[in-house]
Amino acid sequence: MKELSERLLLLVQTAEPKLRVVSDEESAKPVLPGGWSRKQVLGHLIDSASNNHQRFVRAMLADSLDFPGYDQEGSVRVQAAQEASWWVLVALWAAYNHMLAHVIARIPASKIGTVCRIGTNEPVTLGFLAEDYVRHLVHHLKQIGAA
User: Fold this and answer.
1) For the chain, what is the HEC assignment?
2) Which of 69-93 are b and which e, b meaning 16 or more Cβ less than 10 Å from the residue's Cβ?
3) Domains (range + CATH), the chain
4) How far apart are CA 21 and CA 90, in angstroms?
5) Of 11, 20, 21, nearest to 142 (Cα)?
6) Phi/psi at 60 (5° precision)
7) Mean pLDDT across the stretch 79-99?
8) What is the pLDDT of residue 71?
9) Which candidate, 122, 127, 2, 1, places its Cα nearest to that of 52?
């Protein structure tokens, strides 16, 4: 998990300066026609960080866990990232991922196989969740030109 943690830190260190040079006005424009803006994508990534933070910590404290499903469209809508300050979104995203890298580095080998069920999806392990979090992050950073 230490390697994954280091990869996450490198992603943040690489992406944050690219995000900081985007203007608030530019961040509000759709990344793709009819799609989310950079603000909405980053809001989604903050929400992903928040959800996964709880999953990582709780899974380290239990033998197995059941988590609720995730409504990404609803979460982006009610959190109104489109109306938030770009600077605040970038700062929160970077700080949250620094903390997640800290947590991921401390997942003990004995907990990597902890079974986690999210909504109605097939069960996965804590190790899978951590790796999938970073994959998901890379996917969205590429969408907004930060990876």
Assistant:
1) CHHHHHHHHHHHHHHHHHHHCCCHHHHCCECCCCCCEHHHHHHHHHHHHHHHHHHHHHHHCCCEEEECCCCHHHHHHHHCHHHCCHHHHHHHHHHHHHHHHHHHHCCCHHHCCCEEEECCCCCEEHHHHHHHHHHHHHHHHHHCCCC
2) eeeeeebbeebebeebebeebbebb
3) 2-143 (1.20.120.450)
4) 11
5) 11
6) -75, -15
7) 97
8) 87
9) 127
Read off the pLDDT of each residue in 59-83 and give the average, rounded to a whole number. Answer: 91
CA quadruple 93, 137, 10, 39: dihedral sign: negative
pTM over 0.90: yes
Q: What is the pLDDT of residues 99-129, one digit of tens each?
A: 999 999 999 999 999 999 999 999 999 999 9
Task: Evaluate whether 42 touches 144 at the Cβ level (below 8 Å).
Answer: yes
User: How long, in residues, is the chain?
Assistant: 147
